[in-house]
Amino acid sequence: MNTQPEQLKHLGFFAIFKESYKIIVSKWRYIFSKIFLALIFPFCLLMLADMLISSHLQGRIIDNSINLDEMDSNNRYYNPMKREVALHSTLLGVFTLLYFLVGLLVLNLFAITAVSYAVACVYASKDTNFKQVIRVVPKAWKKLVLTYLWNLFLQLVFVAVFVALVVLCLVIGIRAKQIVLAIVIGVIVVILFIVGMIYFNVMWGMASVVSVLEECRGPRAFKRSGELMKGKKKLNIGVYMVFLVLLVVIQGGYWVLAGLFNSSLPIVVYVIVAIVFFLLLLGLVMLGLVVQTVLYLVCKSYHNESIDKASLGDQLDSYLSSYGRLGGAKDVQLGEV
């Protein structure tokens, strides 16, 4: 990998993917392979397990709820079925909470932290190993959690505003007897909502790396990510859309497969196809996390911010200082890795 600082700002859409792939298969691949097995593999496994379990429980809840609506309350099966709905609803809530806490809040953020730090080490030509990366993860993760929670808060507020606007459009349309106009306005609001959610997620991708590699967190990290993306918004959105489409295809295919689990589909075929979807998801998540950090460095270079080995190395060493392992940053320009 021979990318110089002045060249990073000129990396285009395809070049970013190529650069990210070269990082993964470079001489540092042993670190990325361990991050992959320790964090990304269990996260993706938990993600697909949550989809399978949620799909099954939701199906049972919907079927039983429909049966309850059509059943007389004096029927001897009514109360047992009602208890079953309550049980499945509770299990669904527990599994969803576990996925959020263990999957999203821990494994996902740990993976983002580890990959961002490892990629930064690659560009700083800083000697490191998997154990050192793992020691750094908890300290950087604390900042990332605050940014993630701020992201959730912003999205919840955005969703609440969206729901309020949709309801308002329907109420005004019904009272004014202008249903068609209300529907048109509602469609426009939905389109704006989708665009807004995409932009929030693009901002989160940049803010997550900022939280790991800079002294920013929460609202400051989002403000910083907005500043970095100026002039590169189309590139960031384009890259995000590629991963979003691929993720939807993989998850959608797996969701359909999960729905066929109890069908006449041979179990061998089901297992093989499930493994294929799982491997595709693993590769997508691994590449996506590396691309996030490369995009961050591209944006920094575009704004002529220093990304030489010395400045980047100082930031990385700040994490190790708490363990008494301050490293010596190399006062040379970013060169070959």
Automatic annotation (TrEMBL):
Keyword annotations from UniProtKB, A to Z: Membrane, Transmembrane, Transmembrane helix
Annotated transmembrane regions: 31-49, 97-124, 145-173, 179-200, 237-261, 267-299
Keyword Lyase on entry: no
Designated name of the protein: Glycerophosphoryl diester phosphodiesterase membrane domain-containing protein
Species for this entry: Stephania cephalantha
